[in-house]
Amino acid sequence: MTQPTLIRRVPAHLNTALDLAARTVPVLPLRAGKVPFGNCPACRDNACGGRPNMKTPGPCHCPRPCHGWAAATTDPTALRSREWERLWREAAAVAYHPGGAGLTVVDLDDTAAVTWARRTLPPTRTVLTTRGEHWVYRGAMQSANAVRAGVDIKSRMSYARWLGPGTGTMTDLPDTVRGLVVKGSPALPPAPRIVSVPTRPGGGECRHRTPAYLERGIAMAEQQITQATSAVHATAYRTFLAVLSAHGRCGCLTDTHIGRLFAAAQGKGESLRHCTDAWTNARTALGM
Fold first, then answer.
1. Which of 59, 60, 81, 247 has the lowest tally of Cβ within 10 angstroms?
2. In this predicted model, which residue has the larger pLDDT, 41 or 275?
3. Given pLDDT bands bounded at 50, 70 and 90, which one contains residue 49?
4. What burial class does residue 248 get, using C-beta atoms within 10 Å of its C-beta: 0-12 exposed, 13-18 middle, 19+ buried?
């Protein structure tokens, strides 16, 4: 008796990814929390030599999509490989690399941001999101978070969740959008006020003012956030709480330090508003 042929069902997210790749849109899977799959053990902490902050992952030849946005590809063979197929089955969503497709996404996170865009930016293709809208323009540019309240720019070296083709006619990237990104660090909200105590109770110089001590603490905090594989918001809150507990009362923290912590959390999918809420809640818990 002839045995029935087993047919492997293709994950729905993989079908979506293959369709986008066929239209030259680089794609990658997202896990729960709208974040990419983490580096595999061989690539942990970029031990493989990969450089996710660059346009290509570097010399790493890892077959898994473990370099964030830089793993995005249009290669159907890679997308169908066993290593990737398992992740597509675990994936919660599909993401794409706008800059790799020659696009820029203006991510409007709330109603106020959408209202601002409608008054300020030229119309283009619009995609509804959970809380706001994605405005998609033809043309690539530098990415940046929090260019203004509730507005992120996703293009080069960034990814955006695929939520459908949207509506409207896509137009060219206007100078108005390019002008939102100031050369240098992404704009962040004014840092919460830190209670400044220049000396320790005993009159000695605050130990936190040792550059290496403070730098090590901030670097460890960034690492804790970026290596979180789940409960990113809770991880960010606990990390903010620890940083404030150790450094918040001595006047050591600067806008730059706080900006690094916010950037790490935003890199894992947290919105600026959620970062600000977590920071405020941590300060409140410590009585600051």
1. 59
2. 275
3. low
4. buried
